[in-house]
Amino acid sequence: MCLNRFYLFAFTCLFTVSTAICAQSSTNKDKSSKTTKSTTATTKTTSTTTKTNSKSVAKAPKKAKTVRVTVTRPAAPAVEARPSFATALGLRGQNDELSLKSSVAMVVNQDTKEVYFEKNPSVSLPIASITKLMTAMVVLDSKLPLDETIVINEDDAHIYRHSRLASGTALTREEALHLALMSSENRAAYTLGRNYPGGIPAFVDAMNRKAKELNMDHSHFADPTGLLSENVASAEDLTRMLNAAYQYKTIREFSTWPDMTMVIAKRPQKFLNTNRLVRSGDMNIGLQKTGFINAAGRCLVMQARVNNTPLLLVFLDSVGTQSRFADAVRVRDWYERMPAGEPHPIRRLM
User: Fold this and answer.
1) Percent of residues in the chain assigned helix, strand, coil, to nearest 5
2) pLDDT above 50 for 168
3) Whole-number percent of the chain with pLDDT over 70
4) Terminal CA-CA length for the chain
5) pLDDT digits (tens, 9 = 90+) for 281-293
């Protein structure tokens, strides 16, 4: 009995030891397998990296791209401004003894009304902002108070897009007149007409009545600014208007003022005279007005004293922004070189 128990105990111990040894062997095999797999994976990774590096080294470098700095587009057709009326009539480019660039010109002695030079003097053409001389005379003839405040409204702002006189700007009638004559402010000129008794229609009627009084038989006015091409006159008529406007001290002063600063919308704004001859002081100018719209070309009228002689000068449809002023200087130089007793008058204005 005791022997049997001994055999049972020995068998149990032997079985336990055998089981432990098998478990340990299995664990070692698993570790070995994992190590082998890890080594294989590392070998594959190393192989892949080697292949990648091999490809990277073997691949030829890319050529640097050239950046295009110019863009070629189909040329858009040039948009040409409509030709002036004088061009359409074949007046532009005509030669004359003074080689003027203006299609129409006239030089008249203000005192004697003798004509010293003329070029297409009887043709009625658009006169652009020269119209504002008539606007000024009608305003001053009305005896409306110059210190009365008038306000730029939406209608005034709509008449011309480019202006520092925004809708709501308040200024006196005198200030509006000053800006209209000196810097050719279209909104200022329009509001002067709108604030006339009866408004714009009555104002335009008064302009045309004034033209008849001055024997401007080849003239017509359609608005106070000159932006409409229906504002037309001949050079002869413009010398009559110039002479009449010269009788108004206010027009003489305001049209020859070099510049002016006004406070608009709480900010100081500087306005310049549109005539560079006034700003530079190159000539003794008593009155002047410039003008430009496509239909009229570049225009200029002046009263200037040359060799102590008051001359009325008219230049219409001049080519280029500065040529009208150059024409005025050319006439001055021509007249200054004249011997005593010349030039001989061509005729006398009636």
Assistant:
1) 45, 20, 35
2) yes
3) 77
4) 171
5) 989 999 999 999 9
Strand ranges inside 223-296, DSSP E = 232-233, 259-264, 267-272, 285-293
* Contact present, 77 and 289 (Cβ < 8 Å): no
Matching residue, tokens 């004293």 = 305
Report phi then psi at 123, rounded to 5: -85, 125
Please state, in angstroms and rounded to a whole number, the distance separating the CA atoms of residues 39 and 130. 100
Residue written as tokens 């994976």? 41
**pLDDT band (50, 70, 90) for residue 81:** low
**Average pLDDT over the chain, rounded to an integer:** 83
| Residues contacting 52, CB < 8 A, separation 6+ | none
Kind plus residue range of the DSSP H or E element containing 46: helix 2-58
Q: How is residue 92 written in tokens? A: 């532009």
Catalytic residue numbers, as ranges: 129, 132, 184
Over residues 98-136, the pLDDT tens digits come to: 999 999 999 999 999 999 999 999 999 999 999 999 999
For 207-246, b where at least 16 C-beta lie within 10 A, e where not — what string? bbebbeebebebbebbbbbbbbbebbbbbbbbbbbbbbbb
The size of the chain, in residues, is: 350
pLDDT at 16 over 80: no
- 106: closest CA among 313, 350, 325, 339? 313
Contact 114, 128 (CB under 8 A): no
Rg from Cα positions in the chain: 46
pTM of the model: 0.77
Q: Is 160 exposed, middle or buried (0-12, 13-18, 19+ CB in 10 A)?
A: middle
Strands 285-293 and 232-233: unpaired
Spell 277-290 as b/e; 16+ CB within 10 A means b: bbeeeebebbbbbb
Name 176's Cβ contacts closer than 8 Å, sequence gap at least 6: 150, 185, 188, 189, 191, 192
Q: Supply the pLDDT for residue 159.
A: 85
Q: Which of 269, 268, 278 is nearest to 300 (CA)?
A: 278
